[in-house]
Amino acid sequence: MTFNPDLPKAHKLPKSLVTPARLPFMRALMRVIGFAQRQGRRIERGATGQRIWVFPARAHGPRPAVLWIHGGGLVFGNPASEIATCKRIVDELDFFVASPEYRFAPKDPYPAALDDVAAALDWLAEQPEIDPTRIAIGGDSGGGHLAAALAIRARDRGGPDIAFQCLHEPMLDEATRRRDDLDPDLLRVWSPRMNAHAWDGYLADLDTIPATASPARLDDASGLPATFIGVGTADLFHDECRAYAETLRTADVPVEEAVVPGAYHGFAAMEPDSSVSQDYMRRMIDALRRALTTV
Fold first, then answer.
1. What's a single GO MF annotation on this record (predicted)?
2. Do residues 286 and 95 touch, judged by C-beta distance below 8 A?
3. Of the listed 115, 116, 235, 239, which one is catalytic?
């Protein structure tokens, strides 16, 4: 495997931006960044008490809406890391965007984070500024995991209705933590070791793992919303993303895949000005546009 030549930082980046030992520092850093970035913004709270960062549409009247969930492997992070994506959706599509905070493993294992984003979806569906028939959910990495799990949960519980899911390099399969064929020297940003640590914490209280805890466990994808799923070939999550796309297709769920040759985990955030990142983000934004303007 080689990295995409349009991503020159790949060779300089660490194999993992966070390790179990550095996790407390990363959480503290993200809390400080999050506090600074949310000042002056509209902040609401879901039924579980977690903050929801709001990025209103410009136009009046019911608008399409996106619940965009931040990454961090289910163990750290906040919506500050997703401001650029949320603002781009508003600026280019004029959709209403909400980005929730949620609790982290291992202190709060499954289903705490899922409960938090589900409460945010409930809140979003009730807002007078949005059209409840045109709601998309999505997220990056661990946020993509929660979006996929939320789509399954909403289907199984009869709502709220979700028109589309947008899964950006999502973390979908707990079984990846036990793979012994992944060479950490060929991966960047999120390592097999950190992946195992995150999954172990998130699933700590489970004897049986349901699909809402590890979406790759899903047997029947029928009734799930149309999906965009994107991942790089140099991403730890590549194989599980491709397999999940096939699970959706088998159930006749419309799927658009964006598989980026030689792209590592987090490439679009690490090298946003590269042509490969710009092309990928354009595909993702266009998928949201098509999904929510033709419903």
1. hydrolase activity
2. no
3. 235
pLDDT > 90? residue 119 = yes
Question: Is 141 part of the annotated catalytic residue set?
Answer: yes
200 is a catalytic site residue: no
pLDDT of residue 184: 81
8-293 to CATH, choices 3.40.50.10140, 3.40.50.1820, 3.30.479.30, 1.20.1250.20: 3.40.50.1820
Rounded CA gap, 145 and 132, in Å?
22
Q: Closest Cα to residue 56, out of 100, 97, 99?
A: 97
Given a cut of 90, whether residue 26 has pLDDT beyond it is yes
Q: What is the pTM of this model?
A: 0.97
CB-based contacts of 145, cutoff 8 Å, min separation 6 = 74, 139, 170, 171, 172, 215
Catalytic, out of 141, 191, 214, 274: 141
Torsion on CA atoms 235, 174, 179, 22, rounded to nearest 10: 70
The verdict on whether 277 is a catalytic residue reads: no
The pLDDT value recorded for residue 1 is 61
With tokens 């879901």, the residue in question is 46
- What is the rounded distance in angstroms from the CA atom of residue 194 to the CA atom of residue 181? 16
Residue pair 216/174 in contact by the 8 Å Cβ criterion: yes
What token pair was written down for 68? 């965009």
Nearest to 44 by CA among 96, 99, 89, 81: 99
For the chain, give every domain's residue range. 8-293
